[in-house]
Structures are given as structure tokens and as C-alpha cells.
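Minutes, project check-in

Agenda point 3 was the complex the collaborators sent over. CS summarized: four entities, 272 residues total, and the question is how they sit relative to each other. Sequences were read into the notes so everyone works from the same version.
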Amino acid sequence: MKRNSRLSLALHTLGHMATEPDAPRTSADIAAHAGTNPVVVRRVLGTLRKAGLLTSEKGHSGGWQLAKSPREITLADIYLALDERLISTDDADHGHNCSLEHALHHQVLTVMEDIERSLIERLSATTIADICETAT
Amino acid sequence: MKRNSRLSLALHTLGHMATEPDAPRTSADIAAHAGTNPVVVRRVLGTLRKAGLLTSEKGHSGGWQLAKSPREITLADIYLALDERLISTDDADHGHNCSLEHALHHQVLTVMEDIERSLIERLSATTIADICETAT
DNA sequence: ACTTACGCAACTGACATTGTTACGTGACTT
DNA sequence: AAGTCACGTAACAATGTCAGTTGCGTAAGT
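CS then shared the predicted structure for the full assembly.
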């Protein structure tokens, strides 16, 4: 798979959960539906649980469920929970001795931060409930 | 190095070239200044040459030079030449059978395309000559 | 001829990510 | 109480990407 497979898996899973919010789903079911592995599902959904978007229960009739109403979960929430940012937040060495390079990176970084801010703003405008409605 | 090292190298090199546009530089010099390898420099600058931003000459007193005035080269030109897009342009399998997944990806993709468009717009507002002036 | 410097192909090693196996733990069922 | 179900987590293998490196060819100039 490629780089944004975690995001794909998260969107896909939460989307389906939103259509039937009260039915818990096991990682095995989700994995089968998404064509991947239960452990991978638990890994990805685990980060969403840490972000407060999902709950998980063990044992019989356990599994994963939405922690809030689908109308309260935006695409931005999912994007931010997965922590796959546009900008590589490690600004370690590139300011070593060259003022030109420093100016260059500062300019690009400023633009990128603005862009990411507006990306999040755009993503937070649609909830997963919205998506389910438009998909009919 | 990390993922945007090609962009860093390109920006850095073009920035320095802009301060003295008529002096050709060899890949060995550039590599030494950037702390990398001449072949890597040729790889990266080669893509910029294909995009029409640089020229290269072989033999004695050969090397790399800007193909245009520094005032005509924007950050967007460099970004686009390196082809490191925000969106993974391979929309191969994710629309296989699930209309919900299709709607999800369509929504995210639309937002991402908008965002990238505005990123390019922002980057095209500053030329490398601008950077050299602000770096004094 | 000889040197210089790019062009390009092939290989290596580091690194990240996904997939897989294995085992522990909590919760429910009988 | 025993059994099962499902998550939680660690460890490892498989894969892909990318920078780095070596080597050789080719063009331009001395």
C-alpha cells in the first residue's frame, strides 16, 4: 500500500460505522471488509480511540464503536488524529550557517503552515454524517 | 535525510545561483556546499533542467546555471518541477465497490486539490530574487 | 591526448510502513 | 469455574522508497 493508507482505512471504517452507529464491529470484520489485517485495524483505530473518536470493548459482543455522534466527527478530526501532517515538523539542521537557506525555509514553512491551517479548516466543514447523506 | 530533501537542495542551490547568476557551478561544488553527493545534485538539478529552470554544460568551465533571470523563477516553479505533490495522484483501487468510500475519497480529494492550487498560488507570489533581497 | 564535468545505470544501506505471528488481558457465556 | 471472544501489544518479516555510492560513457574545452 501507499502512504495514506491509514487515512483511507480510518475514513472508510468511520464512514461505515456512521451508517449504523449502535452496532459494534470487530477488527476482524473491519479488516475483512477493508482487505487488510485485524492487527493493522487495531493499530489505526487505536490512534483514533486515543483521540476520543472511538471506543473499544473486549470480550463477547465487543468491538469498536463511535464515541460521539457522526454529526460531531469531522474529517479534520480524523486527519488530525492520524498525525500525518503536511510539514515535517523537525526543523533540525537547515539553519546551520547559511542565512539564505534560513530565509528560504522560513518562507516556505510559513506558506505551508498557512496552507495546512486552511486545509484543516476546509476538512472541519464536513462531518462523516454529511458524507453518508450525500452517498445515499 | 528526510522526505523533502530534494526540495531543500533545489531551493538552496537556486538561491545561491541567484546571487551570482553568471558564474557556472559544478555539481561537485554544489554537493560540497550542501553536504551531499555530486550525483545526487545532478539528479535533482536534472529535473529542474527538464523543467526549463537550469542549463548544464559539460567540459571545462562547464557546470550549472540559471536558464532565466532570478526574477522569473518562483518558488512554485521549483515545487512543481520536483513533482512532489500533496495528493497521491494514483486513484487506482479505492473506488472498487463501495459507494461510501468513493464519496469519502472524492470529498477529500476535492479539498486537497483546492488546497494544492492555493499552495501553488502562494508559492508563485515570491521569486528567488525576492528571497535573496530579504536575506540581504 | 588529456582533463573536466555532466548523464546514466546499477547497486547498497538506511528507514518507514504494512503485514503477520504470538501471547497476554479483560469481558461475557455457559 | 472453564471456555471463548476480542482487544492490546510486542516482535519479526516483507516490501518500498530514497539518499548515497561506484562505475562507465560522452561531450567540451585545453
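Noted in discussion: Chain B touches chain A through 39 residues (CB under 8 Å).
Follow-up: revisit at the next meeting once the mutant set is ready.
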